[in-house]
Design goal:
61% of the residues lie in helices and 8% in strands. It is α+β, with helices and mostly antiparallel strands and 343 residues long. The protein has a six-stranded antiparallel sheet with strand order 1-6-2-3-4-5. Strand 3 and strand 4 form a beta hairpin. The relative contact order is 0.11.
Length: 343
């Protein structure tokens, strides 16, 4: 006969634990349901943050451009010095060969004179002074020895200069790498923010920029072209031919540009070489107030002078604005104007 046992009842402690756990779960669920969902930044908020990041990226870009320009200048200087050292060494070798031949001739005749003694002296300068005073050397021998000594000193100085510049070059390359990483970090941050927008929001932002660019182009007034210099107008027309080219940091054309890359390229097309960076361009001519601007003048923006464009007339500027944009017209009032520069 099967036994009938009563099922074991849960202990009071177990019931209490289960009841408490259930109550806690209900409370957490209720809190989660009532908690306000995290708000996604609006399109305009994202744009404001992205614009700020792009501005910081451009600041780093101009520092990058400065380091790159310095690197290129140092490389040219080092190359020139090294070429000079090589030529100088050849001249020194020729002078020594000439003295060596003279010494060999004297050895064969058994008359090693004071010029050879000088050549072997541990203190040539001192010996030369004494020998010259005592009239022990011919004028030609003295001249040859002085040339050797002078060439030795010159080569020593040039080698020291090259060594210093090589150290500076290594430091500049390190700085260049840091600036490049800073630019890339800012651009990466901006891209992450843009990726949070929907396709419709991105399209809306692009449409706003296109409308603003068209509006600025419509307001461009070249009526005061007659007052602009021929060089400034030639530079402006060169920049006009690049409208629509993309902004790329560190670029100088012709596939893409950054702000100072465009202005330096444009003036270069007009036969006027100007510095590479916006900060250097800012001090390359006479400063102007906004009311003095003429077509083709440089326009400098921001208190650290990290942005530059070309004045297009009627309060408009032609420039390469920032990453994600193209060479275009824009109102001069969209950025903090510092001053103009007439090259």
């Amino acid at each position: 006969m099967a036994s009938h046992r009563r099922p074991k009842q849960p202990s009071r402690a177990r019931v209490t634990v289960l009841t408490t756990a259930a109550a806690a779960a209900v409370a957490i669920s209720s809190q989660a349901a009532n908690a306000a969902p995290s708000e996604k930044p609006s399109k305009d908020e994202v744009k404001a943050k992205v614009d700020k990041l792009y501005e910081e990226a451009e600041q780093a870009t101009e520092k990058y451009n400065g380091a790159k320009e310095k690197q290129e200048k140092l490389q040219k200087e080092i190359s020139t010095i090294q070429d000079n050292v090589a030529r100088g060494q050849e001249e020194l070798n020729e002078l020594r060969d000439t003295m060596g031949l003279a010494a060999a001739a004297q050895y064969r005749t058994g008359s090693i004179d004071s010029s050879v003694q000088l050549f072997l002296s541990s203190d040539p300068d001192d010996y030369l002074d004494k020998a010259s005073t005592m009239d022990q050397l011919s004028a030609q021998q003295v001249d040859s020895l002085k040339k050797i000594q002078g060439k030795q000193r010159e080569l020593s100085q040039q080698r020291a200069e090259a060594s210093d510049k090589l150290k500076d070059l290594a430091s500049t390359r390190t700085e260049l790498g840091k600036k490049k990483k800073q630019v890339q970090a800012k651009l990466g941050e901006a891209q992450k923010l843009l990726n949070t927008l929907t396709a419709a929001e991105k399209a809306a932002l692009a449409a706003e920029e296109q409308r603003a660019s068209r509006s600025a182009a419509d307001r461009v007034d070249l009526g005061n072209v007659g007052s602009a210099s021929g060089r400034a107008m030639a530079a402006f027309q060169a920049a006009q031919s690049q409208i629509g080219k993309p902004y790329v940091y560190g670029a100088t054309g012709t596939a893409s540009y950054d702000c100072s890359g465009l202005t330096s390229w444009a003036y270069g097309q007009a036969g006027v070489p100007i510095p590479r960076t916006s900060q250097a361009q800012a001090s390359y001519g006479r400063h102007l107030s906004m009311g003095e601007l003429k077509v083709g003048d440089l326009v400098i923006f921001y208190d650290d002078l990290h942005h530059v464009g070309l004045y297009a007339g009627n309060g408009q500027v032609l420039h390469a604005p920032r990453s994600g944009t193209v060479v275009r017209y824009e109102s001069i009032n969209n950025m903090p104007f510092m001053f103009g520069v007439r090259i």
